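User: Here's a chain of 579 residues. Predict its fold as C-alpha cells.
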Amino acid sequence: MRLVAAVDPGLPDLRSPDHFLWWLGRQQWPNLAAGAWYGVLWMGSLAGLPLVLGRAVGSAANRQPATVLAWSLGILLLGTFAAVAGVMRHRRAVTNYLLSASRTQQLIIRCATRLGAELPRQVAAGEVASLSATDVDRIGSTFDVTGRFAGAVVTYLGVTGLLFAMAPEFGLVALIGGPLTLVSLVACLGPLGRRQQAQREAVAVASGQAVDVVVGLRVLRGLGGETMFANRFAIAATTIRDAMNRTAQMAAVLTALEALVPGSFLVAVTWLGARMAASGRAGAGELVTVYALAAFLLVPLATFGEAAQSLSAGRVAARKVLSVLVRQRELVEPSGEPNLVLPTPQELARGVLEDSRTGTRVEPGILVAITSADSEGLIELAARLGRYADPGDGAWVTLGGRRLDSLPLELVRQTILVVDRDATLLAGSLQDNLDPLVEAGENPRPELDQVLRAAQAIEILSGLEGGLSHLLPERGRSLSGGQRQRLVLARALRSGAPILVLEEPTSAVDAYTELMVVEGLRQLRSGLTTVVLTTSPMLMERADQVLVLDQRVVASGSHRQLLQTEPRYRTLLERELAG
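Assistant: Prediction complete.
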C-alpha cells in the first residue's frame, strides 16, 4: 500500500472536538466513502450466508441433492466474495487510520513549528509526547471503524426487514433489540468520556514529571532528590491506576451491555423459532435461516458498541489536540506596509544592537562578552536580543535604530541567531545536524571543515564510526557533554548568522580546549558581531569588549580595564575561579 501524506494538512476547524473530527472526515471523504462501500459489501455478503445456508438445509431436508450442491456452491462463492470484500475493507480502514493520524500529527508539528521557542513555555514536553504517542492513535482508530460501522447499519436494517418479511414477530424483536442496544451504549458514553478524560489528564501529569527528571537527572542526583521524585512519581502513578480502574469499570459495563442486550435478543428469537417449529409454522430450512440471521445480528450490534467506544476515545483525544492547536504565538508580526523595502540581514547587522531594559549596547563587527552574577538575567537578555521575548513595560530592543518588534520575525531570525545553553543535537546523522539544508539567498556560510576546526570538533569526527555519516541517538546522548557543546557551536558557526548570541558556549570543556575554541571563534567570526553571555574568565579576557550587568550595565571596557577599575567585575572573576 502506497500512502502519500498531504504536503499541506489544511486549516482545521478548531471550534470543538466534534467539529475537528468532522473536518478530518471531510478531508478524506473519498477514502471514507470507499471504506463504507466495501464495509457494506463485506457485511452484506456475510448477512447473505444465512439465507443460502437455510436454502441448502431445506433442500437437504427435502432430499434434493442437486439443489443442495447448487446452494453449497453458492455458499462457497459468497464466502469467497466476503473474503475479497473484507480484504478491501481492511485496506481502506488502514488507509483511513493513517490519513487521519498523519494529518493530525502534521497539524501538531506545524503548531510546534509556529510556536517555536515559545512551545516549552506554553505546552509541557510530556503533553506533546502524549499527543504523539496516544491521542493521534485514538483519532486514527475513530476513522478505522467507519467502514464496519456503515456495513453494520445497512445490514442491520436489511436483516431486520427480512425478518419482518419472514415473520413479524422476529422483525419486531430485532427492531426492539437494535435501538435498545444503541440507547444503552449512548447512555454510557458520557460517563466513559469523563473517565477517559480524567485518565488522560493523569497520564499527562506523569509524562511531564518523567520528562523533567530525564532532563534534570544529573542535577537531581547532585541534590539527592531521587527519593523525593520517586515519591512524587509514585503518587502520579497511583492516580493513573485509579483513573484507569474507573475507566475500565465503565468500559466493562459497556462491554457487558454489548453482550447482554444482543444476547437477550438472540434468546428471544430462539424461543420464538422453537414455538413456530413446534406448531409447524416453520420448516428446518426456515428455522436455520432465522437462527443464523439472529446470530449474525450480534456482529453489527457489537460493531455499534465498538464504534461508540472509539468515538468516545476519539473525542477525548481531539479535545487534547485542540488544546495545543489553538495556541498562538505571544510574539506578533508587525502590521507595517506590505510594500515597505526592508534591509538585508547583512545590512541590518551593521547597526548597533541595544536593549533599553539593561542599557546593553553592542557595537557591530566585534566580540562582546556580557557577564553577570544573575544567570537568569543573562538568559532573559539573550531571549530579548533575539526577540524570543518582548521586553514589555515600555522597554525595547533596537538594531541599527530599528525596533526588533517592528521588523518581520523572519528577518530577525535571519539576522540574529541565539544559541542557548539547552541547545542540543537531534537524532540522525551528524551531517544532517551540522549541515542542515538552507534556502538560496540566505547568509553566506563558512565551509564545514572551517567551523569544525574553529569549534575544535575535528577530533570528535575521527573518533566516530562513519564520521559525518555517524547516526546519533536522541539529543546526541551517546556523546559527552563537551562533545555535544562543541558540535552545537560548530552548527551555529556554520549558519553564518550576521549576529550570533551564545550562552556559555564553553562551560563543558577543559581549559585548553576552551582557549582553542575562543581563538577559533575570534578568527572565524572576524568582522561579524558575536555576543557571548558568560562567566568564563578566558572568554572575557579575549573579548573586544566586556559588559558587566547588575540588572543594568554598570561597567564596560576591556578585560584589563575592568580588572583595574571595577570591583564587581573582580568579584565575579574570583567567584568563578574559586568555583
